[in-house]
Amino acid sequence: MATALWGRVLFRDDLAGTLQQDPSGRYVFTYDPAYLAQEPANAIAHTLPLREEPFISEVGLHPFFDNLVAEGWFQNAQARALGVNPSDRFALLLAFGRDLAGAVAVIDPAPSAQLRLDAIDPDAVAALASRASLSGIQRKLLVVRHGNGYRPAGPNELSTHIAKLPSGQLTDIVELEFLTTLASRALLPDDSIVELDISSVRGIDGPALVIPRFDRVSSGLKIHFEEFNQLLGRRSGDDKYNGAYEDMGRFIGTTPGCLPAEADRLYRRVLTCLLLGNTDAHFKNFAMFHTRDGLRLTPAYDLVAASIYPDYQTIALSVAGARDLKISALQPKHIVALGEGFSLPTASIMDAVAEIEKRLGVAKDTVAASKVGTMEMRDELISRMDKRWNGSFASIGRLLSKKQSKGGRRKTLRSSV
Kindly report the CA angle at 279 between 311 and 310, in degrees rounded to 5? Predict the structure, then answer.
């Protein structure tokens, strides 16, 4: 367990500042003066811009840091190994903050020498070895390539890939994410979608879904990015479901340095998620790189047609003002209003839907031709794509044409008065 109530915050290899818990329980992040004097210096987070004054969070970790802490199975495994309560997120971050998402690390100045691993399952032992952390509920660990397969990253070793493991509750989720990603790539051929492979991981039973980390390059350089949960200043947990897809479009439209084209690209990604039944597409499943020119979308990731499972029938975020909308209740009006919420003109909405229609056959053929998963799963995914296209997407063009026609008539009547 951490023996100090503060940690050093690194941006790549530079000391960016310190994060500490004061006696009152508040959390304070302060940029290091030498870091601020660098030219140029990089803010570690959109919500933590460069400044001399400290950033104080009265309740819990700052959202940027809170979203770096593990969740679910990984969080519980870390807590057991440290002998702390799983809710002690600062202790978890200090102990497992060496290899985090993006370019930031949080280092405990007096780390515990040993972890309690004796009563933990083999998957957890492998996940904890590198003293790293990953958010998200699904069982996963950080790995590196080893021969024809992969092995868990070791102590003081930066990982290059993420391995997602099978889940007993969600049958065949590894295969389902692989197929959903294939279909997404077919529907969005001009976009960037994560690469993935189904492979073995040394010491782990069963196949794993292995994904190269887009925040790492072969030289070891860390590429910085933030999930929208961080960008929007929301904490980990249920906050990732508290909002609307349009919140991300508005963020892009109102944040200096973002490009309008990114809103159009993100809208198409959301449409693809809806078409494929990716009902668990929440704020942590969309992210943006920090670049010299501003924020830019990362590759699309965590693409799972979750609505195949009975417990995932509700769309993760609000759509066009409709909260807790069942995927079966999605209508053309929702999709049109969603585009308008992204500040897209009618022509862009129509073009996005037309491009998806053009690629629908290719996506279905790609899924059908895959050798991954059972034939029943592939057929079910294709059947649901067809049903959702016919029920939610096919009449969007007519709806938009009617809206344009009514708008034209109103203009004519006004001009004749």
Answer: 20
153-179 pLDDT tens trace = 988 788 999 999 987 778 899 999 999
- Which 3 state secondary structure label does DSSP give 81? helix
* Model pLDDT for residues 117-132, shown as the tens digit of each residue: 655 567 777 778 777 7
Number of domains in the chain: 2
Q: Residue 374 is encoded by which pair of tokens?
A: 């059972």
Q: Find where tokens 């590196």 sit.
A: 144
Q: Which token pair is 182?
A: 């294939």
In a domain, 49, yes or no: yes
The structure's pTM equals 0.93
* Ramachandran category for residue 39: left, alpha or beta (phi over 0 → left; psi -120 to 50 → alpha): beta
- Give CA separation, 411 vs 111, 206, 405, 416, in Å: 69, 63, 10, 9
List Cβ neighbours of 404 (8 Å cut-off, separation of 6 or more).
346
The CATH number that applies at residue 370 is 1.10.1070.20
**Residue 105 near residue 97 (C-beta atoms within 8 A):** yes
Provide the 3-class DSSP secondary structure of residue 65. helix
Q: What is the span of the domain harbouring residue 278?
A: 225-404
